[in-house]
## 1
Amino acid sequence: MEVLEGFKILLLNDYNPNNKITLCRLYFIIYIFKITMNESILKFKKVTYGYEEDNPLLKEVDFSILRGKKITLMGQNGAGKSTIFALITKELSPDSGSINVENNVSVALARQVIPRDQLNLTIKEFFEKCFKEKVYDIDPKIDEVLEIVNLEAEHDRIIKSFSGGQQARILLASALIQDPDLLLLDEPTNNLDKEGIERLKKFLIAYPKTCLVISHDADFLNSFTDGVLYLDVFTRKVEQFVGDYFDVQEQTSVHQDKVNKKNVQLSKLIQEKRDRANFFAHKGGKMRILAKRMREKASIAESEKEELRREDKTIHSFAIPPQEGLSGVIIHITKFKTIKKQKASERKTDIEIRRGEHLLLKGPNGIGKSTLLESIVNGTADGVKITEGTKVGYYRQDFSNLNFEETVYQSLSRSAGEETEQNMRNVAAGFLINGDIMGEKIGDLSEGQKGLISFTKLVLEKPGLLILDEPTNHINFRHIPVIAEALNKYTGAMILVSHVPDFVHKIKIDHTLDLEK
């Protein structure tokens, strides 16, 4: 009945076939109408979940997903997107409310990263763990899904021997091998090169079943999205939109303008009623009754004001201070190794990176970029010489250089050196790391929050050589221009690996080393 009433109100009062926003609202009502006709594959109804009763992570969340639709789940780092996935897969249980998955619907999740306790499994063992019961003759199925994600791999090869991009493909394949009715993808483009992202786009466009995707890559999402679920970090609720992210931006902008105008009018009315109430109150007698009515009308008008949805907070502009006392050539690379089909080959080059110069390291997934960076950090890279006394700052794509058992406070304190605690906290606050997060274990944070912790540590460490391996992975797209600006202005030596062209184009690049060419 509520949906039909919504149709009536919209069509009688607000319908304009030439207005894109009005049409979007009509499509949304039709979408909700279909949901009420039991065509949804998944429903969240008044779902609340949280670590603290008075401050839950999710608060009375409502949304539904239709069968066969491809939906995006967006929101700020740490808002609870991965928690929603864990609730769908029943890894977690809601504190209140209900989650209904249609009968006999199978669900499979491709996580952001491979669990650390599974990195020593073989390919075959890893895929076998995807099933509750033993699957006989699983090898052909493994070959089939690996071909879909464009990865060749021996079934006895250890997972941790693959690059970050190859592991991302394995994660996707581990979900596909289950042939689920509902496919959940958590940041599937992280670590993927351009070719991998294009293949994933084509796959999702052709995928005939239901898909829910968490991603911060707006261009990727807009290539296949039917609708958007937006998890608001402030209200802890989910807003549901029809269309891609750009449609959401347009709808939100129009709604905000409308609410602003309404609130301005109400503010004028409220002030007018209060002024009249004050005037009548001083008259005494029966005028005080009139004054009371004026105040009541002002209160009613106040209650009619709408609160605007607050946009995601963006990290503050920041700078990574370079190590003092360094000059001239910071790092000299004369040779390096590449990896193809598990075979290493040595190649020569001659690149000198001076203070203030930036090197872009290029190449497809699996060619050895991360391996080269790690060997440089460890001091084991043959053919690479770093000026003695140079402090190296390392952003590792899997965050394995962070101690997951430490609290955020302990980790940042080790990086702060002689910095005061107040300055350390001020730097952390610029990366949206508040007092509550300081006491949490790093292993309990979202991947996006771990990324912001890593940038905080780099600011505190003041490195002379900055090594960055896919620094935009897991990071909210709103933060990326701020990060690009900081790296562009960094005046130490820097080596960067990134598969995100828009990000790289914002940064001054002085040298490029393509491991494939």
## 2
Amino acid sequence: MSKFDNKSVMPRYFIIAVIFTIIGFAIIGKAMYIMTAEKDYWMKVASRLKRDSVSVKPNRGNILSCDGQLMASSIPEYKIYMDFEAGGLKKDSMWNDSIDLICEGLHRIFPQKSVEDFKRDLEKGHKKMSRCWPIWPYRIDYNTYMEVKQLPIFCQSIYRGGFYHVEFNARKRPFGSLAQRTVGDMFGAKDSARCGLELAYDSILRGYNGITQRRKVLNKFLNITVTPPIDGADIVTTIDVNMQDLAERAVIDELREINGDLGVAILMEVKTGDVKAIVNMTKCIDGEYREVKNNAVADLREPGSVFKTASMLVALDDGVVDTMVTVDTGCGIYKMHGRDMKDHNWRRGGYQVISLPRILEVSSNIGVSRIIDEHYGSNPEKFVKGIYRTGLASDLKIPLVGATKPRIRMPQKNSRGQWLNWSKTALPWMSIGYETQIPPISTVTFYNAIANDGIMMRPRFVKKIVKNGETLMEFPTEQVMDRPIAKSATVKTMQTILEHVVSQGLGRPAGSKFFKVAGKTGTAQISQGAGGYKSGTVQYWLSFAGFFPADEPRYSCIVCLKKSGLPASGGGMSGKVFHHIAEGVMARHLKFDVNDAQDSLSIFIPDVKDGDMLAAHYVLDALGISSNVNWSGSYTTGNPIWGRANSTPQTVTLSSASIDKRVVPDVRGMGARDAVYLIEAAGMRVSVKGRGRVVSQSYAPGSAVMPGGRCELVLDN
């Protein structure tokens, strides 16, 4: 018979099953209640514990010079804050004990603000129990941040002390304002590009944001990276830091001397079109010169006489004139369709009859305008098309925001054959640099094409994009047009004429006695809008454009200066700046052969003093000079080997000599170090007079040593 009492046990199991069933239904009911009625509450709780898709900014790429020097780089900057709620009551008691030390430390780091001001400000934040009270209102660098972090309470963790920071990427230029408008600026608060290459290549420099999630674990936020940020790439520019500095100093020095308002200079490599230096200096209200606008690529100006080169190039290329043609410029004033055309020396009687090359050498307005008006007056479209053919009106596609293309007006007629935008005086004045608007970058590109045998290269500002030492993209040199700007013979002729402009014309101040320079001067009055050219004080646009060395061109350059009132000379002012830039640039490329420095007095074997022959042999061997060693001994011991040195034009003979410490050594011919060593090693004292090698000693060589005696050494070269 079974001992199991079924009647008493089964009711108990049933009760237990019912209880668990009720508990199960209660759990399911509670879950349903949380999912519906309390959904909003728990979603708010979850949002405090987890935050999805937090954007993480990448590091911005660097801007480098052509030789890899940093021109713009990103470094971290910090804004520092205090969370007065962190740390609880324990932190509050520490704060009251340390506030004076903290404020003294902050005053030491930021002396602009007194201890009392710091204490008053921080106590105000503590009273409000602010969670983001700014300790210092401005951004600070890493070193300053670490100094602040060493102060009491600030040195603790954010959850105990409450000190924390917000990090920013700050853009810094190691060379200061050098090429500032070309390199570009950043809006610091927005961390976005403002101008220059920073803006033009912003998408490459910026990189791509990453995504991270933040989860609260044990009362701390844990960052979990979902997508890492991709740092920006670096761009290598064509700017040469040394050439840029040279050009800026030359422009500023001349602006100060003439009290100029604006200065522009562009230095370009002939074969590649690489812009090695670009200067834009504007006189500010405080009298200092700064880069405010990239005038070199953005300013549309009437170029003045530097345009005459293009006019004569078109006439020569069309074959309507040659270098033998002459023009009667008269007394310097000529009636051109009812208006007076004047040469710069009209008060001195003009140039009379001169040839075409001489017209450019002396920059005769009458000579150029008469040639162009005579051959193109009835068909001005042909002349303007010829200007277009030279590439002077081409869109250079400059990769800088604000860059403009030249505006050279094409003549137009209506259906009745009447001019819509032209007059009889338009062509003569266009031929000498008025009636057109051309930025300096286009003018120097045109002169660069003449130097490059007619091949017009597009100005290049960026050579390549690199990242982590690898080249991602290269920007090859590029021609503006698929043909030369003129016939080869025409270009060669113009090269010669431009060289004569400098050697025997108005461009002499731009020349150099060390190498040949070619170029053209320009002086233009600046129109005052509705007031014309003569309202109030006359303003002048002074230019010099050219290339050097003229016989083997390597660089082209344009210098433009804006000033008010006379005197105003494109050759004497802009040409002077060109001269300084050209000589400074060429000086950096001088490489002399040592053979060129040889003369009858040249010394190639150094003068070796007597004394330690082991040291002498070591130096001579390092210099690659043969030395006949005439002694026995070991180098490995490192002990001095005393002896004599005899020099010949081809070699040095070293011989050893025995030293007897019982007699006074012969130290004549030795240097002071070796002589003093030997005399003192014999137990005597030494006094030295003069410099060079020992010529006499007070104790005769070979005499008995007098211990403690003083031996006087006289040295002479």
